[in-house]
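Final report, closing paragraph on structural work. Over the funding period we assembled a curated collection of sequence-structure pairs, and we close with a single example.
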Amino acid sequence: MLFNSYEFLLFFLVVFLFYWFVFQKKLKAQNAFILITSYVFYGWWDWRFLGLILFSSIVDFICGLKIGKEQNSFKRKVFLGISLGVNLGLLGFFKYFNFFIASTVDLINAIGFQASPYTLQLILPVGISFYTFQTMSYTIDIYKRQMAPSKDLVAFLAFVSFFPQLMAGPIERASNLLPQFLKSRNFDYRLAMDGMRQILWGFFMKVVIADNCAVFVDQAFKNPESQPSSNLLIGAVFFSFQIYGDFGGYSNIAIGSGKLLGFKLMQNFAFPYFSRDIAEFWRRWHISLSTWFRDYVYIPLGGSKGSKYLSLRNIFIIFLVSGFWHGANWTFIAWGGIHALLFVPLYLLGKNRLNIGVVAEDSILPSFREFSQMLLTFTLVTIAWILFRASSISEAWNFLSHLFTVSLFSKPQMDIRVYLFIALCLIFLLLEWFGRREEFAIQRMFLSQPSWLRYGLYYGLVMAVFLFARKEQQFIYFQF
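Its predicted structure, as stored:
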């Protein structure tokens, strides 16, 4: 069941009505209803994997209780090991089994021996990379005595499977989301209206920007050797907009849906394409994942407190693991490695924390220096995205080798509609720019202005969604 489908709109309407009009004053009933509807939502994709998420959740619930109760250090580590082992084992088997087998076979063949690959036809359970990380952070936080274990099984199961963010995040921390399942929730009109605006913006990002950019991206990445470099450049730039519109759109719909049900999920994107360097980009892109790796991998490894060598090792580990998290393909590892190489100079020069605040916070337009920094960062990110989009290293190299030729300055050989979507992307950037101080672009846009102006914006976005809607397109991050 996709967010951008009529089935989901009907599903969510039914959930909303029952949630607030039938179960409003019954917290346990509300949580049980969320749990049931979340499992229905997940089972809509493939009911066979309901047992997987239930098993993983129960293991972590029991391990959390045991870790919280035990005082013996060794036993606490054992139960933490069980939790991490089960989650990483399930993730590794379903997501990386074939990758490791194929890579091993390639290595054996490369050194002169003959080996035949043995792979399984495994279906990757949607959302497994997200909910396993979510539950691992729960048991780790209990082990570190940063939170107490939950004794409410229904609330815990609902926390793990909460349907708005189940498929593709944000990867919520138990310390933020779980307590919200344990206290009464009353309908908040302002929060609900804010959620509606965020959902609308999410649909605009996904349906208007991402899905339409995808058409030209697919054309550019198909047989790049037969196209002028200018086509490839537009395709690469459009992919930057596609993946941001797609994943950022999902996050906004998820967070907005949570607000309609009285929950506050963490922000997952903070206008990343206005970043002035790579370090700032990673503070603004997929925030729930980057902060997860920071807190549960980078800092435990020593962070930047040790020698320069150890700090550089930790930086490369965090970026390579982040790349590998995205998929079982060397392209993702290379993508993570490129970002590590771009980050290292900033770290060595002590400039990785230079750009913390909002760009041009006190002015309408950025300075020439800020604009140049944003343009350079966007260019580097876009080049790296080529590896992310390609299905293999050789395909990425083929694209890059045909991108930088003299035909880069020629007129693109594309349908005239490409100019329309360039204009749409520019409008999108303009709205993001004026809303860059908020959680999402249109959060407070025109709220202090006459109502006709505010609702004109909303109706315009709704019309754009219906006008530019294409056949239902799955979200990119469902594959991760």
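The chain is about 65% helix and 0% strand. Residues 247 and 477 are 7 Å apart (CA to CA). We thank the funder for supporting this effort.
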